[in-house]
Amino acid sequence: MKRIYLDYSASSPVDKQVLKEMTPYFTEKFGNAGSLHSFGQEAVRALDVSREACAKTIGADFREVVFTSSATEANNLALRGTVQGVKDPQIIVSSIEHESVLETARDLEGNGVEVVYLPVDKNGLVDLKKLKTSINERTVLVSIMYGNNVMGAIQPIREIANIVREFRKANKLMKLPPKADQPKAEKAKSSQVGYPLLHTDAVQSFQYLDCDVERLGIDLMSLSSHKIYGPKGVGLLYVRGNREANEAKSYKLKAIITGGKQEFGFRSGTPNVAGIVGFTKALEITKETRKEENRKTKELKEYLWKKLKEKVLDVEINPDTAAKGKDSFLPSIINIHFPKRESQEIITLLDARGVAVSSGAACSVRSAGPSYVITALGLSKERLNGNIRISLGRHTTKEEIDEAVRRITMVI
Question: Is the pLDDT assigned to residue 344 strictly greater than 90?
């Protein structure tokens, strides 16, 4: 029985071109980038070339690219690194963020950081009115995921960026540097220059959406290697620097992993040179093929939904509008509801028949209960279970979809 993989949002196979680029750095080019000898210099050169290429791919500057071990670490650095040293900070996140944002926010909340959790509407979009009323002079960070990893809703990041930017313009006094004779409390307040910052988790989005940091208007962005046919164990955080000479640096992100001052002091630890080289190649390939991948994946998603409705009469899509608003949802993700069924049972039975799907993020798939993302949509109690996520990828074919639908029909 041929196995069919329909869980590309969880992970993807390493591209052959990526593997070829990485291989020398596992063998003859194995030096530590911290060493002064030629082996170390060879590793540093690979890092510099990779960083420059990654920066170019997302429209950033060389020093604005910080390599991490994962997008989870990048998200942690964005949140924890921003609030460190700020007095009485507030952060704003959406209620459907990845666990690495939500769990970090809850942890910070337990340590005195005020967290505002923005609700979403029935389409999975954040409440922009609530965002506008929630931002205040204590807000240091707004973190909104670009494309959701469970049901694929695409957030209006440019519009969100405009809201954040307009607030910053209206609060120009916050950009004044602290005076030497200011009281300590006043120094802490005035040192919050250029806040709030805008962070987006673009892990699921890079393959299909424009992630140029200037066009999006963001300050921080997290990316992951293994979601775009690169190796596991590598991520990236874009950190906006001071691009305008006449403006004070907007913020100072602080390290959460210390010990060696690698990655411009933002992230200590021996760089994963082989992984970074592979990640860079994966980014370049993905950007080059984005337009075609978008077209192909959209067609496959529409084909899958059409076939499912033909074969399984009792089936719905989460949210309902996902079947109509094609451009408001990622082309790779479709969240399906089967009434009066259990999610885990469907997944287990499909796996026994060689079809790999999931109920949501791999980080929380083993937890009991319905997905918090689906719950946040405000659906009826009956719609909270019996949901599976099917995510398509570069290697998905119509023949696989036909066979997968046949096996799904058998299970249901």
Answer: yes
Please name the amino acid found at residue 201: D
Map out the domains of the chain as residue ranges: 4-10+290-411, 16-282
Tell me yes or no: is domain 4-10+290-411 CATH 3.90.1150.10: yes
> Is 54 annotated as catalytic?
no
Q: What angle do CA 75, 76, 79 make, to 5 degrees?
A: 85
CATH of 16-282, one of 2.40.30.30, 3.40.50.11290, 3.30.360.10, 3.40.640.10: 3.40.640.10
CB-based contact 148:373 (threshold 8 Å): yes
Q: Which of 148, 83, 74, 33 lies closest to 389, judged by CA?
A: 148
**CA–CA gap between residue 121 and residue 96 (Å, rounded):** 11
Q: Residue 404: which of 298, 296, 301, 317 has the closest Cα?
A: 301
Contact 334, 389 (CB under 8 A): yes
407, 354 contact by CB (below 8 A): yes
- Give tens-digit pLDDT for 242-260: 554 333 344 568 888 988 8
> Which among 205, 277, 290, 241 is positioned nearest to 52, based on CA atoms?
277
Give the tens place of pLDDT for each residue, 121-170: 999 999 999 999 999 999 999 999 999 999 999 999 999 999 999 999 88
Nearest to 293 by CA among 165, 149, 157, 394: 394
In 118-183, alpha helices (H): 128-134, 157-170
Residue 110 CB coordination number (10 Å): 9
Candidate list 349, 363, 365, 411, residue with the active-site label = 363
Q: What is the pLDDT of residues 348-358, one digit of tens each?
A: 999 999 999 99
